[in-house]
Amino acid sequence: MKRIYVVGLGPGDEKFLSGQARAALEQAQVLCGYTVYVDLVRGLFPDKEVYATPMRRETDRCRWALETAAEGKTVALVCSGDGGVYGMAGLVLQLGEEYPQVEILVVPGITAALSGAAVLGAPLGHDFCVVSLSDLLTPWDVIEKRLECAALGDFALCLYNPASQKRRDHLRRACDILLEHKAPDTLCGWVRNIGREGQEHRLMTLRELREEQVDMFTTVFVGSSATRLCGGRLVTPRGYEGKL
């Protein structure tokens, strides 16, 4: 059987692996992925063949996985969170058109929007948007437009990739856009190293978020006008309490 599993590992800790994800990893003969993500599960399967590449080698990695599967080996291409959310599932499916003999199965995982929201409470309890602040693959003017539209729609937001060594001011720039349409006291929060050693989180207002120092391991949450604190946790109500 010529098959690739695109496996979402969730936040990283073994306890977040779904049963379907674990089964796919067990069936695979080869584990493939970005070095950091492969290392999350390498210890669980020490006898399996491993192919890992550094960041920005995504196309090479996916093509290697497809070619290896075409040769008859079952491959698990691993991604943190969910492979279909800023992961490799889309690219594998695009490239997979050149390898019709390879079956591609996408195995979902817990993405940072969900695992991070659970740490803070329920900030995504109503309609929300997920936006990456990385402009490596998306022009910044497109990101700005999406942020503005989300703010105008009064969505709660989850922001991926809020900063890096080369993008130190992106969160501040994003907050400036949001502050044009959201109140400065809008409730926000961030979670760092979700589900991993050293996990930490903090709550603050949108005005305060503008001055926060975050990194690429941080996921940021911005509330809607309805978001409030309930027992020290962020909650964006859906409206059940007003239903007769």
Describe the overall structure.
The protein is α/β, with parallel strands linked by helices. The protein folds into two domains: 3-107, 3-Layer(aba) Sandwich (Cobalt-precorrin-4 Transmethylase, domain 1), CATH 3.40.1010.10; 112-235, 2-Layer Sandwich (Methyltransferase, Cobalt-precorrin-4 Transmethylase, Domain 2), CATH 3.30.950. The chain is 30% helix and 25% strand. The protein has eight helices and 13 strands. The chain has helices spanning 19-27, 35-42, 58-70, 89-95, 112-120, 140-152, 170-179, 206-209, and strands at residues 3-8, 30-34, 49-53, 75-79, 103-107, 121-122, 128-132, 156-160, 187-192, 200-205, 218-222, 228-230, 233-235. The strands form three sheets. Strands 3-2-4-1-5 form a five-stranded parallel beta sheet, with helices on both faces. It has a five-stranded mixed beta sheet with strand order 7-8-11-9-10, sandwiched between helices. Strands 6-13-12 form a three-stranded mixed beta sheet. Helix 6 (140-152) runs parallel beside helix 7. The radius of gyration is 19 Å and the shape is elongated.
Q: What is the count of distinct domains?
A: 2
What is the C-alpha radius of gyration, as a whole number of Å? 19 Å
Our estimate of the beta-strand percent is 25-35%
Multimerization status: single chain
Q: What share of the residues lie within helices?
A: 25-40%
- What is the ordering of alpha helices and beta strands? EHEHEHEHEHEEHEHEEHEEE
Total beta strands: 13
User: How far apart are the termini?
Assistant: 55 Å
Give the low-pLDDT segments.
none
Which structural class best describes the helix and strand composition? alpha/beta
Query: Which geometry do the CA atoms define?
Result: elongated
Please give the CATH architecture of the largest domain: 2-Layer Sandwich
CATH topology of the largest domain: Methyltransferase, Cobalt-precorrin-4 Transmethylase, Domain 2
CATH first level of the largest domain:
Alpha Beta
